[in-house]
Amino acid sequence: MSNYLILILLSFFMLISIAAGTQFKVGGSNGWSVPDTNAMSYSQWAAKNRFKIGDSLLFVYLPDEDSVLLVNADAYNSCNTSSFVDFFNDGNTVFTFTRSSHFYFISGKKDYCHKNEKLVVVVMADRSNRSSLAPAPLPASASPPPPPYGGEVEEPTAQPSPNGASSRVIGMVSTIGAVLGALPYVF
Ligand SMILES: *[C@@H]1O[C@H](CO)[C@@H](O)[C@H](O)[C@H]1NC(C)=O
Ligand SMILES: *[C@@H]1O[C@H](CO)[C@@H](O)[C@H](O)[C@H]1NC(C)=O
């Protein structure tokens, strides 16, 4: 391997490291599950955090018992598990935000969804532009309770909460994985 190649690899690695986002574990230590009745809802938790492009959500659950559906606002509100945009049931789902938008996740089990195992995440266009932090209004069809965004999204607080993961894991491990995965194509 020439020094030149090593240099290219190193630059590549550094570039990806900078671009790597924060990983948020949904549900904290409980993982993706029906929240306790007195715990903060997933969407309340999400509203306390600030998500940007490149950040990711980690859903941990038993693949036999649960799954994650990416849905539209209508399916989110009605817990319609038969209409989804994407479907994950691997038990360890990492969903990376590649654009700014509202992302609606529900449990693949209708019953669990009705028990509030559902989550809306608003991904901001640019974290440096504070005026753009106010979330876009939900589509008119999404009339049921919008999560309480207090205008501006707060920095994640250090307070641990039963249902809210504050774990901010830099996506370093996945970055290394990505680089190693790319190696066979480089050589
Ligand atoms: C779920 O969504 C699909 C597609 O939009 C629709 O055809 C179906 O009637 C919906 N089911 C329920 C129970 O609302
Ligand atoms: C910041 O946000 C405002 C309002 O959304 C927009 O008009 C402006 O172009 C943005 N600036 C940058 C640098 O993105």
TrEMBL record:
It is a lipid-anchor; GPI-anchor. It comes from Musa troglodytarum (fe'i banana). The keyword Disulfide bond applies. The keyword Transcription regulation does not apply. Pfam families: Cu_bind_like (PF02298). InterPro entries: Cupredoxin (IPR008972), ENL_dom (IPR041846), Phytocyanin-like (IPR039391), Phytocyanin_dom (IPR003245). This is Early nodulin-like protein. SUPFAM superfamilies: Cupredoxins. Gene3D superfamilies: Cupredoxins - blue copper proteins. One of its GO terms (cellular component) is plasma membrane. Residues 132-166 are annotated as: Disordered. It is found in: Cell membrane. Residues 22-125 form the Phytocyanin domain. GO terms for molecular function: electron transfer activity. Belongs to the early nodulin-like (ENODL) family. Residues 136-149 have a biased composition (Pro residues). Residues 1-21 form the signal peptide. Keywords: Cell membrane, Disulfide bond, Glycoprotein, GPI-anchor, Lipoprotein, Membrane, Signal.
